[in-house]
Each structure stands twice: as structure tokens, then as C-alpha cells.
Sequence to fold (375 residues):
Amino acid sequence: MASGTKDYYELLGVARSASAEEIKKAFRRRARETHPDASDAHDAEERFKEVNEAYEVLSDPQKRDLYDRFGTADPRAAGGGFGDFGDIFNAAGVEDIFSMFFGGAGATASARTAAREGRDMAAQVTITLLEAADGVTKEVRYTRDAPCAACGGQGAAPGGKVTACPDCGGTGQVRAARRTFLGTFESVAPCIRCAATGAVADPPCPKCGGSGRERRAESVSVEVPAGIADGMQIRVPGAGEAGLRGARPGDLIVGVRVEPHEFLAREGDDLHCRAEISIAAAALGETVVVPGLRGDVDVDVPAGAQYGDALRVRGQGMPRLRNGSTGDLVVHLAVAVPRKLSKRQRELLRELRETLRSTAGDRTPLQRIRDWLGG
Fold:
């Protein structure tokens, strides 16, 4: 790993062999821990940015591959460590190579744009299972680098203007000639004066220092659609980090967590619950009441029901995101055997036992129970 480079795996708390799903889970956990609105640490804001930066690299297979091999996800910074010509052309591209050695501008515009654009940010909302079924609007409060209110995000003080950087001529990169035994070659590096953006504010806005953005607490309304599942994400375009001097902002990625329900468990678009029934109800059949998402639901238990049977109530589950249909409520039966019996109940059960024994030759156990109970 290059000297001075952040260890993204250490920032997320995962091994270098971690899978994409493990990295995603680790990012969610770290984002919750370091978010400035949830953490009291003095460096929470900086740590939250680092966690986002680490996830941005490790969640992208190409960037992660570059980072694993060269300690950086920037193909230009990794240029000195390529193993062969195939690596060079895959990572930097033909235009970048010609730009490095022959002064072309193939990579300049893309590098300058990337340096100016805002990054995506992460947030989280927690909803109930009923809100997940019906859909809900949630207000998300967070802190971000927003467009500067004093200069309108342009970076220049009143009466000033944004001009091309005099050090790099507006390219965002500075070039230096280098002599080798093969001849003279040009090297390219990001311009320090304009932070590789290609532009400077003259004079700069006193409030934002010419960046065109300021740190500010904000809120945004997020529409959570009906049927959303735990762990899904909602993208709010333009609500992430503001770009430098009016460049394109990043997006806000809102993770959705659904609270566990007291009685119901979700599996896909179906809901599951448990219902205890008596021995008599299992033998003869009965209508039982179980808790549903929006109130009690009547369920018809057929005669001869067995422990563990699952009864499906159509249309009592979760709405489906894609086609608007609805899942089912699945009721799992548990036949309850009484632990304590009255004297009369013991007499009846003994009588039932004798009746079952006397008719064992030509009647099934279920038929014998029904005969004894008068069904």
C-alpha cells in the first residue's frame, strides 16, 4: 500500500478478503456509529467522510482491484506500479497514456469534473412494519457541505468572478518535463492551487473561502414506497455533498430499517404468525382469531389439523413493490396440550382413551376422536 494511504478495510472493520455483502453490512454499521447526528465524538464528521470514502472504493469492483494492487483507486496515481502493458491500458485508458506522454487533453476534462463534483452521502430511517406496508414520508435530518448561502455556491465574493487557474491554465493539472535515457517525457500531477478543479475565485467568498460550499444542518423529505423491505435503499438526487463552485452535487442514499413486529414475521411479501389451538379444535375444526397487520383476522382451522400445519390467508400480507399485488398471511398451528386438568376433564380423557382402544380395529384415530366428541 502506498505510503500515507488510508486503509479502507481497517476503516470499515473488515478483512481484505471480505465479500461485497460483508462490506455493505460493515458500511451500514460504521455509518450509524460515526454519523455526526448520532456520535458525540469531536471528529465524527471527518470519520463519517472517511467511512463513505472507503465504501465508495471497496463497493466498486474496479476501484477495489486498483486499491488492492496499488494502494489507491486513482488509476493515474497507480501508474508507477503496473505489472504489464495490459494493466496500463485497462486502468488508465489509451487517451490517458497519450495525455501523459504527448501532452494531450484526453484525461484532463474528466479529472477536472471529478474533482469538482460532490460525493454521495449516507443516512438512515427506521419505520414500522405497518408503515412499510402503507408507505410513509420521513424527514431526514443530517449535516452536509451545502451550497454557500453568501455567494450562491459560486465561490467568488460580491463583485468577484471565477477564472481559469493561472498555475494550470484551467486544465486542473500541472506538467513537468523529465529527461530519461529514452528521451524527454512529460509527467502530470493535480494542480495544488485550484485543487485540480481548473478554476479559482478572485476574490474568494469570505464565508466559504472560494469553495462555494459551507457546512450546514439540513433536512429532506424522503418518500418511502409501500412494500419496501428492511435493508433497501432510497436515492435522493442532489441531496448529497455540494460540488465545488456550483458543480454537480452528490446524492443522499437513505437506508431503510424496518422494526420487528410483535406478532408477525416477514418473509418476502408474506407475513407469518403462530396460533395455538386446543386438541378438540384440531380434531373437529374451528374458527380462530389471529393478529393481522391491520387488526384481527379470522382463520378457519379444518378438522383433523396437525401440529405445524400452515394455513394461508390470501391477500393479508405485504404489498409487492413491482406489480401492486399483495402477499399472504401464513398461520402456523400449534396444538396446545393442557398441563393441568380438572377432575371432570381427566374423566373425559380417560373415557376417550378407552373408546379409542375399543375401536382401534376399524376406526382411524381421528374418526375415534370425532365419534367421542360427538362430531
